[in-house]
Input
Amino acid sequence: MASTSWWSSENFWRKTAIGVTTLMLVVLIVLTFHSVSVITAGSQRVPAYSAINQRVDYRFDTKRNVMVPVLGEEAPLFGKVLTAEEAEALVTKGKLTIQAKNCINCHTLLGNGSYYAPDLTKAWLDPAWGSAAVREQLMVNFLLDPTTNARGFGSNRRMPKLGITEEEARAIVAFLKWMSTIDTNGFPNNYKSIQQEG
Ligand code: HEC
Output
């Protein structure tokens, strides 16, 4: 009887299947932990929530060939420096409001959502807010009454009034400021940022 060679034996393929599955399971677990670590606030590309206490610039990085957010001097949101806990609570409230009002029914955040209205990832840095000095208040005014306070964000569409309270509007602004600090490899592309004096 002709003997089967080792590479065509059932035993060899069974062991190989088990070995490859085990190896890939380990790889998947390692990648999952790695992904979580790089998307967590306070990591290299996703700054801590307290970044809302700082000025955010958007500069061209010649080495990477993309625009990157750069945190600058102290520039507290609504004039008040927040502790790490307070900043987290405010940004989280903003995120929950954005989810509750379903903003991604029209907008995208980090590219996820709908294409009816502008991507909000860098909305904090949008030149339409005029200047860094008045931006916060103009953003709050806009969110409270988007029709009256529209500033020309490059579309001919109008955002409806969504029944947002002033407190919620401030939290949304905090969320948008924090989001603008995330290093998104230059996304969205060709984005021009607000002029900041000084
Ligand atoms: C029904 C669609 C719709 C919904 C829902 C909506 N928006 Fe908008 N939004 C728009 C449109 C349209 C514009 C652009 C208006 C313009 O060009 O004048 C806009 C503009 C904006 C801008 C200015 C964008 C920029 O580039 O600076 C911000 C900030 C914004 N929306 C935030 C929100 C938030 C936060 C929510 C949820 C609470 C939300 N929007 C829900 C339609 C929507």
